[in-house]
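Per reviewer request, we include the raw input and output of the structure prediction for the construct analysed in the revised manuscript.
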Amino acid sequence: MKLQNKTGIITGGAGSLGQATARLFLAEGARVVLVDRNGGALERAAADLPSDRIMSLAADVTSAGETERYIEATVERFGPIDVLFSNAGNFGTVAPIADYPEGVFDAVQAVHVKGAFLAAKYAAPRMRDGGSIVITSSVAGLRGDAGVYAYITAKHAQVGLMRCLAKELAVRRIRVNTIHPGPIDNGFQHAVEEGLGSQMGCDGTAFFNDLIPLGRHGRAEEVAQSVLYLASSDSSFTTGTTLVVDGGMSA
């Protein structure tokens, strides 16, 4: 039981990676708080994880007030925080730089970068020493692609945030790392591939599979295992690093 009696927060908790990670955390003995802006999807996600060790809270991760609220609610219900999995995300669009919508760019930065910043800002003071912060970046945080301006910029920015946090929180033995999944077989990725495929005039899923040496998309459950590694004491000497789970795509 790698997380026995630990308390973890998962933002983006209604998505496939959030749900897979919550299921794994619960199996490892944790108390879990799911946070997502989509209240309906969040309720369905929590219903699929019946346990007296789970709580769901609808919140906008880009709001300081709502972030502080879900942090305080977590501490009130379950006590000090041991794991923060900052996993909320949105994609934006794909367009040439001259046509890229400024509002879309701002919205993507707000969720990925400001959302992760606010989560750490309010969670870190309420964390136990020796805890773990994991931020979901992406293979996109390690490369560049024409047209993916908002998402790729945000995913790179998360790495910078992680490295700053890792330096500051090391004195408390709080480890901070980013995880970098490649394409995952889920609704989020399928929507991305539809948009890219229509622009490129090809099958978006096949296009990505051709870029992955292992020849397939990952499963949310596979990525969740890597999140568990970073969340648990298995990674007790790992901080400030970028853990890549992409089937070799970035090699």
